[in-house]
């Protein structure tokens, strides 16, 4: 697991360049361009289970879904931040990407500290310290566990269908 650290007001253009908005729509098309203008090493270096620690207002800017789609598809375990832009937060729910607001954990991290997010206990562990965060609503957890809103809705519809 690797920790990627970014600052305040990182907008969606820096997470996924706008010049690709109409030419990249699938996860495989998006992945090579993730954070291209912010951190050119990210797309080739990110691995499933990695964690992003971010500042205030992460994901501000346009409402494009590609940044969240890309982060979810490369297997980012969580984005732990001081705060998130509202539209980005909703897009993360839709894609099943875990966002956790925990400023104390972001502030406590130093290079080399492992970071673990425990949703069940609502805490972020940084090195040997633990930081609580507000429990996530069961609906958001169910959407995340389903792999996103579309998969969650499909499963709910299938469960409601009469069998026979």
Describe the fold and architecture.
This protein is α/β, with parallel strands linked by helices and 164 residues long. The protein has one domain (3-160): Aconitase, domain 4, CATH 3.20.19. Helices cover 35% and strands 16% of the residues. It has eight helices and seven strands, in the order E-H-H-H-E-H-E-H-E-H-E-E-E-H-H. It has a four-stranded parallel beta sheet with strand order 1-2-3-4. It is globular. The relative contact order is 0.14. The mean pLDDT is 94.
User: Which CATH architecture would you pick?
Assistant: Alpha-Beta Barrel
Quaternary structure state of the chains depicted: single chain
In helices, the fraction of residues equals 25-40%
Continuous helix count: 8
Can you tell me the CATH superfamily? Answer: Aconitase, domain 4
SSE layout and pairings?
Layout: E1 3-5, H1 12-15, H2 27-30, H3 42-45, E2 51-54, H4 66-73, E3 78-81, H5 86-95, E4 99-101, H6 103-108, E5 115-118, E6 123-126, E7 129-132, H7 138-146, H8 149-160
Parallel strand pairs: 1-2, 2-3, 3-4
Antiparallel strand pairs: 5-6, 6-7
């Amino acid at each position: 697991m690797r920790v990627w650290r970014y600052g305040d007001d990182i907008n969606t253009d820096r997470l996924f360049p706008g010049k690709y908005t109409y030419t990249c729509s699938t996860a495989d098309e998006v992945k090579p361009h993730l954070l291209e203008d912010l951190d050119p090493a990210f797309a080739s270096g990110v691995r499933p289970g990695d964690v992003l620690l971010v500042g205030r207002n992460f994901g501000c800017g346009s409402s494009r879904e590609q940044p969240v789609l890309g982060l979810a598809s490369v297997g980012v375990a969580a984005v732990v931040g001081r705060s998130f832009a509202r539209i980005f937060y909703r897009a993360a729910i839709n894609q099943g990407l875990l966002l956790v607001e925990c400023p104390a954990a972001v502030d406590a991290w130093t290079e080399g500290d492992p970071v673990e997010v425990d949703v069940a206990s609502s805490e972020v562990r940084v090195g040997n310290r633990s930081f609580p965060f507000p429990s996530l609503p069961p609906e958001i957890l169910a959407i995340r566990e389903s792999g996103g809103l579309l998969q969650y809705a499909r499963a709910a519809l299938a469960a409601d269908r009469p069998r026979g």
